[in-house]
Predict the 3D structure of the following.
Amino acid sequence: MKKFINSIDSLLDESLSGFAKAHADIVQLHAEPHFVSRKTPAKPGKVALISGGGSGHEPLHIGFVGSGMLDAACPGQIFTSPTPDQMLAAAQAVESGGGVLFIVKNYAGDVMNFEIAAEMLDCANETVFVSDDVSLPKDHSTGRRGVAGTLVVEKIVGAAAEKGADLAACKALGDRVNGAIASMGVALSSCTVPALGKPTFELGDDEIEMGVGIHGEHGRETVKLMTAAEIVEHLAGVIDDELKPQKGQPVLLHVNGFGATPLMELYLIYELAARFWQKRGVDICRSLVGNYTTSLDMAGCSITLSLLDDALLSLWDAPVHTASLHG
Amino acid sequence: MKKFINSIDSLLDESLSGFAKAHADIVQLHAEPHFVSRKTPAKPGKVALISGGGSGHEPLHIGFVGSGMLDAACPGQIFTSPTPDQMLAAAQAVESGGGVLFIVKNYAGDVMNFEIAAEMLDCANETVFVSDDVSLPKDHSTGRRGVAGTLVVEKIVGAAAEKGADLAACKALGDRVNGAIASMGVALSSCTVPALGKPTFELGDDEIEMGVGIHGEHGRETVKLMTAAEIVEHLAGVIDDELKPQKGQPVLLHVNGFGATPLMELYLIYELAARFWQKRGVDICRSLVGNYTTSLDMAGCSITLSLLDDALLSLWDAPVHTASLHG
């Protein structure tokens, strides 16, 4: 295993500390239990948005803490759910009368721990579960996984909360956005979890993993290496079947890198995905390309399509000031 | 070779097209010869800042075109200098009476082609050569290479030009900034140039390349894998010897990923580099962490230290609106 690392035990703490130092103007790191909150608290009465999940997906979620997006994020160990005490401590630190909205990627561990925290919390709270990964069937036993679309939910609900939407409105909006997003990913390589020390699955030199998640698990199928155009046809085809955007439908097209894929290739994927929907008359009015929801050192990417309307567009465009999203 | 690619011949065009589509609000892509310019031209009389170089280092330079930074960028083929006709076409498109400042990384091909363009240009022009890579000795035959510090020169001179500094002032400022920057990189893997189809150098499972450039060339030395702390001691030590920052000296600390290194590891490197200079009483007042000057799919990073003063700090902080730097 070749990584920049001192020891497996210190990796997360040292990395979080570096993150907090590099962005000391935006965030504050709390220890025992660990969470990241805004340096400048939101105005009293605003709904407090809290997310979290296993580490290894940076900048998700810590990079999205700040004005216009999250109030706090709880990083678990690598690919491991944060614990309820982290969520409780974060909620107690940032709740200011408007209640708490948890935004949770749909994984068994995350769901369970956020539910425990929600039950223990002595203030109004709601939870939005994100389940945008269409590589799994809709009726999958534990539901679909939350992947790169989580950022879109966090950005749009974050903007609404900042504008004064109340808890019920934020919860309804989060559910609505989750229903209008579909993502699917492909991996050219596995990732290496430091504690494991070797790739979590093996791929031949001419194989890729289609419909892959973000935790180093196997995807929907292992297929032969194909051209970027063929890969995009496959991913975009599944997404299109799910969302069925009509001609003229405004959408946000997000191409997300898994951590080890260079920007040059991500822009190539963006070009091909844009052509796919432009051919169908879909109005790609917003874009986001880069490494936002990663899977350690995995080479690969996902495509996320989000259906927009005037209200969602205006919230997507609203000011945001975080370590990893600005505008 | 596993990459997202349709064909070696179309890769750059398709990627540039995706970049231009994703950032159509900020940039405009011109073909034959290829260059990227601002969507909204700068105000007449402003010094026109133009950079460029081989592709494969994205977001450098195309991601830095926009208000507060570059007026245009000329992308060459992968790891290959752009041609003088690209620079001439870019200059003719964006020059508006204030003259042209070329910002050029110090590589023989880039230097030669920008010099040819400068000679053919029928307006006032100057060139700043960036040579921040301290892994080579100061008296190296062709001078030191320009690497991640180039971004700092482009940002600071870009801000000055936007504020109305004239050509001579921009040239002097660029030279001054170049003299106050030192960078050094380390690679955990080589990179794979698509046309070559295999890594440009081989590294054992327990080897890393210290003092590496950004074109897949061998570095200063191949050494055994060491801890992140030892790597940072080495890189920061060479940089510190060069710049000799005094106690209380304000600096910008930039940790740059080469393309395949996850953010979690880059923040770990930032933490260790910050500790290195904090111990010495240096005032790390600004930071930048991420993949900005990459080398295709190379795993690795570089550390760049920039000495600041009040004037440089204010220019670093000035508004910028590009695809890859915002604030």
Notes: Chain B has two domains: 14-180, 181-307.
